[in-house]
Amino acid sequence: MNCRKEIRLSCEELEELNRKAKERGLSDSQYLRMLITNRPRDYPELLEALQNLTNEINHIGININQIVKNNNSGLYHESDKKRLYVYMKQIKEAVMQVVSHLDIAGN
């Protein structure tokens, strides 16, 4: 059973609704329903960004594990400390990129 609900929007709000729905290739009603249900599958670009982040962290984690292994074997060098810093910076940048996608998706 379908129900009907009328809402009041300002001209600016209506323009924004139309623009955002059009950007996603949806009708106004479909876009509003998507916002209400807020399912992750409704945001494929965000899912892709999260998958990329996961892959990036996995690769960096492998490198960090190698450095830890060197440390446990007594083969730790000052250059390993620098590499750890670079890896942590890469993780931070990758996370910030996903956060920017969240900001875009939320707007």
Automatic annotation (TrEMBL):
Superkingdom of the source species: Bacteria
InterPro entries: NikA-like (IPR053842)
Protein name: MobC family plasmid mobilization relaxosome protein
Organism, as annotated: Enterocloster aldenensis
Upper classification of the organism: Bacteria, Bacillati, Bacillota, Clostridia, Lachnospirales
